[in-house]
Amino acid sequence: MGETKILKLLILCIILLYSPIDLAKSCSEEPDGVCEGCTSENDICTMKILQETSRSVVLNNGEKMPAFGLGTYDIQNQEVITYSIVELGYRHIDTAQVYENEELVSKAIKEAIQAGISRDELFITTKLWNSGFENPVKALRESLGRLNLKYVDMYLIHWPIPEFEEDKKTFKKTPMHQVWQGMERCVELGIAKSIGVSNFNVQLLIDMLAYAKIPPTCNQVEVHPYYQQEGLLQFCQKYGIAVVAYAPLSSPARPDGGNGRNILKDPILQQIANSHDTTPAQIALAWNLQLGNVVISKTNNVTRAKENIEAVSVALSSKEMDLIRSLDANEKIYDTQEWECFGNIHAFK
Ligand SMILES: *[C@@H]1O[C@H](CO)[C@@H](O)[C@H](O)[C@H]1NC(C)=O
């Protein structure tokens, strides 16, 4: 390599290193408090948001997971996903085999890459459904085919419940340690950068840590102000397992979700939101992030997708965090008892 080439590379590196910082500065130091990209005086600076959305959690294998993810369950068109990546700064996209939308996610990834986002910048998660417990490598290869990817950043065991065989009226006998071996094989083959679990409780995690050659990097579970799972969170923190919170707004759009209570209308969250000039949704998301959790939020509405990710710039006081802590009501929305595929059992209550 010639000297001029090296010099050019050096200059490029310096520009790359310093440009985001400069952008952040020019935003906050704008005399009238408005920066480029802000649509109104009260709007939060887009540049600053983009910077903060790159904030990530370091997993126990050294990989980084962006702290704010886009859920895709029930997302109806890929434009919401593409827009969220390209225009709103989402980098972490969460899908699953059972959502039956991996092709849709694949279109959005393709569009985002065409718009100049690189694959490396994206963090893509998909999940193993229980029908694939016997051969996770095969199931992931099928997911990768639908996603049109060479690897996923995260592969999760979706639920710790083996397949329920309707005809036999019983569960398949696939022990979890065997499933995990298959997950570890995915890492060895380079088709999953990280592996983890979802909907695991403390007991299952303790057991897994006893047999795992590769410990789970994360546990994706339901966490919101009405269902805080403090014990599980403490365990995960202590043993280096990142917590990824799903249904952080307690799924207000889910037809069978909730029991009449709506986080978006919670008077305490509303009161905190008023003092920050934000919305209750942003307060609930900021609370989750501030606990150190990764958050997965989903909406079909791009205005709300923007509102959601802007929660990264809301800083709550410890008094406000305590106030939200007092809202815990052990109100779990995702209950396997309603699901035939899991044999209609109460696995978590
Ligand atoms: C999208 O969200 C915004 C903000 O909450 C709301 O005003 C608007 O009505 C929503 N649009 C649709 C189509 O639901």
Question: Could you give a quick summary of the protein structure above?
Answer:
The chain has 12 helices and 12 strands.
Structural overview:
By secondary structure, this protein is of the alpha/beta class. It has a single domain, classed as Alpha-Beta Barrel (TIM Barrel), CATH 3.20.20. Helix content is 39%, strand content 14%. It is built from twelve helices and twelve strands. The chain has helices at 3-28, 46-53, 78-86, 102-114, 136-147, 176-188, 202-211, 230-238, 267-276, 280-290, 302-309, 318-325, and strands at 56-58, 64-66, 68-71, 92-94, 123-128, 152-157, 164-165, 170-171, 192-198, 218-222, 242-246, 294-297. The strands form three sheets. It has an eight-stranded parallel barrel with strand order 3-4-5-6-9-10-11-12, surrounded by six helices. Strands 1-2 form a two-stranded antiparallel ribbon. A two-stranded antiparallel sheet has the order 7-8. Helix 9 (267-276) packs across helix 10 (280-290). The model is unreliable at 11-45 (pLDDT under 50). 2-acetamido-2-deoxy-beta-D-glucopyranose binds at residues 301, 303-304.
Number of domains: 1
- Structural class estimated from helices and strands: alpha/beta
Bound molecules: 2-acetamido-2-deoxy-beta-D-glucopyranose
CATH topology: TIM Barrel
**Main sheet strand line-up:** 3-4-5-6-9-10-11-12
Report the total helices: 12
User: How far is the first residue's CA from the last residue's CA?
Assistant: 64 Å
Question: What best-fitting shape do the alpha-carbon axes yield?
Answer: globular
Radius of gyration: 21 Å
Protein name: NADP-dependent oxidoreductase domain-containing protein
Active site: 99 (proton donor)
Signal peptide: 1-26
Domain NADP-dependent oxidoreductase: 84-328
